[in-house]
């Protein structure tokens, strides 16, 4: 639904139909999450040209100009702290070439968590003062959340901020001030978790802090001064790159890639080459008493990639071999994530360990995985049947979802029409209050408006045509009345009202 909405927004702005799209995903997304994102794009009526890792997109946006003047390879650390997730990636950047060396991340760490801490703080303060627990009241908590979000943003620019909610609970107002230092203390451990991810990422990339040439800030939460300070401290006072609006850097990079794939844009854009890596290791489960993970594609392997592993039989005259496919970093598969499974059958009988079976893991540019196996003296083959459970949707499933999306869109249109009629009625009611009108005139206008209000209340389900009919009828009535009222109601108001229906 979000993607369909984005498509609509872009189409309205560009005044043309949008078919192709590049969608960004967190670097930490696994195979099924990527596939689900692609499916969602299809359901939204888009052709997904590429999925792009968000840090890569940000680096394209940030580093693009610099690398055209400097041909030496550089190590870039992308630190993306958004609303819900924290992603750290190390990229090697050459001329027009971006390669993700390693990624580390936390899928549940971001701005919302900082808000939660602030909210808890306020709830405790309110309780201390009024002996009332407001956590059970959703509306109350919602308004407090909005105030805390605003206060958090203000604290990025000033050392103090107010948190003020009138009538927070019943008639009780809430009004407090919070300092930046207090905010930092409330979130100390969370901020530390963010910066710890840097060590992990650099460790995986086998790169020392001193070898990092630039640190890029991405994501709205990197506006928090303490985060910037921690980053700067980590890198021995290095200047941070924050030239691009942190909320837009990712979209900016995706737009460059989209232009590149559509053969648009300037020469630099056209020369762009992107190399992504697998975020987690992929492999086959092998029975050794317990099921152990035999890694075929190690974590952080550049994609697209095709890698093979060699397998064999465990028993004499074994004619079939079972291949469970996992993703994860544990040596024991029970801690990893089963992606799918298939069995290679019809292998020529032979003593154990004789049959040679080659399995190939093929990952395309979107990070989507296909596994195949071939072996035995007769060379039987199984073009893999990875269980599609979490992966590709069937054509029928996609169709059902496309229809559902169309239905949501229709419901949305109905709601918009309904709201526009409600607005229209409001305008009529306001007009009926003009001082120069006689009482019978006011009465007629109000009656016409009230009739529509009653209609709206009794017709919760109505077609767009039916709603528009109400609007036209009301407009006709009002116009008839307005003829008699020229000079009393400002001409502009009458004109606006008429235009809305015409
Ligand atoms: N001035 C500011 N100070 C602190 N935080 C801010 C500021 N401006 C925005 N934020 C926070 O940035 C977050 C949104 O950032 P962004 O748009 O990068 O997130 P996202 O990409 O939607 O989320 P994610 O990457 O986690 O999926 C919100 O939590 C918001 O509160
Ligand atoms: Mg983000």
TrEMBL record:
GO terms for molecular function: ATP binding; ATP-dependent protein folding chaperone. InterPro entries: ATPase_NBD (IPR043129), Heat_shock_70_CS (IPR018181), HSP70_C_sf (IPR029048), HSP70_peptide-bd_sf (IPR029047), Hsp_70_fam (IPR013126). Keywords: ATP-binding, Nucleotide-binding. CDD domains: ASKHA_NBD_HSP70_HSPA1-like. It holds the Pfam family HSP70. Belongs to the heat shock protein 70 family. This is Heat shock protein 70. It comes from Rhynchospora tenuis.
């Amino acid at each position: 639904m979000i993607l369909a909405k984005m498509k609509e927004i872009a189409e309205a702005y560009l005044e043309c139909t949008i078919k192709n799209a590049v969608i960004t995903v967190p670097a930490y997304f696994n195979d099924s999450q990527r596939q689900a994102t692609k499916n969602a794009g299809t359901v939204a009526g888009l052709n997904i040209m590429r999925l792009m890792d968000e840090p890569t997109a940000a680096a394209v946006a940030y580093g693009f100009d610099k690398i055209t003047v400097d041909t030496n390879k550089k190590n870039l650390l992308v630190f993306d702290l958004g609303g819900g997730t924290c992603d750290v990636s190390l990229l090697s950047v050459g001329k027009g070439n971006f390669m993700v060396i390693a990624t580390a991340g936390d899928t549940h760490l971001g701005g919302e968590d900082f808000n939660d801490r602030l909210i808890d703080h306020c709830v405790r303060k309110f309780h201390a003062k009024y002996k009332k627990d407001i956590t059970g009241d959703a509306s109350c908590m919602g308004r407090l959340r909005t105030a805390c979000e605003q206060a958090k943003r203000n604290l990025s620019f000033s050392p103090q901020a107010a948190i003020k909610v009138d009538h927070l609970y019943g008639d009780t107002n809430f009004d407090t001030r919070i300092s930046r230092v207090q905010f930092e203390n409330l979130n100390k451990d969370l901020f530390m978790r963010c910066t710890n991810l840097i060590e992990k990422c650099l460790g995986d990339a086998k790169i020392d802090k001193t070898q990092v040439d630039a640190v890029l800030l991405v994501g709205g939460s990197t506006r928090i001064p303490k985060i910037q300070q921690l980053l700067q401290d980590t890198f021995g006072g290095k200047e941070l790159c924050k030239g691009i609006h942190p909320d837009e850097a990712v979209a900016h990079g995706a737009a460059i890639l989209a232009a590149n794939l559509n053969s648009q844009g300037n020469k630099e854009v056209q020369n762009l080459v992107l190399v992504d890596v697998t975020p987690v290791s992929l492999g086959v489960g092998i029975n050794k008493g317990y099921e152990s993970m035999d890694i075929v594609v190690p974590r952080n392997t550049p994609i697209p990639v095709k890698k093979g592993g060699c397998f064999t039989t465990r028993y004499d005259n074994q004619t079939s071999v079972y291949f469970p496919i996992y993703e994860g970093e544990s040596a024991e598969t029970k801690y990893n994530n089963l992606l799918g499974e298939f069995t290679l059958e019809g292998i020529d009988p032979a003593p154990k360990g004789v049959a040679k079976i080659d399995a190939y893991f093929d990952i395309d540019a979107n990070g989507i995985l296909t596994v195949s196996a071939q072996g035995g003296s007769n060379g039987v083959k199984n073009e893999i049947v990875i269980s599609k459970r979490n992966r590709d949707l069937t054509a029928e499933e996609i169709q059902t979802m496309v229809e559902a999306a169309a239905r949501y869109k229709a419901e949305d249109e109905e709601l918009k029409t309904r709201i526009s009629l409600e607005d229209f009625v409001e305008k009529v009611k306001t007009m009926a209050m003009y001082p120069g009108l006689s009482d019978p005139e006011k009465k007629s206008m109000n009656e016409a408006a009230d009739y529509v209000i009653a209609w709206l209340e009794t017709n919760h389900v109505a077609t767009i045509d039916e709603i528009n009919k109400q609007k036209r009828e009301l407009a006709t009535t009002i116009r008839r009345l307005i003829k008699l009222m020229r000079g009393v109601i400002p001409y502009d108001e009458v004109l606006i009202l008429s235009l809305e229906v015409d």
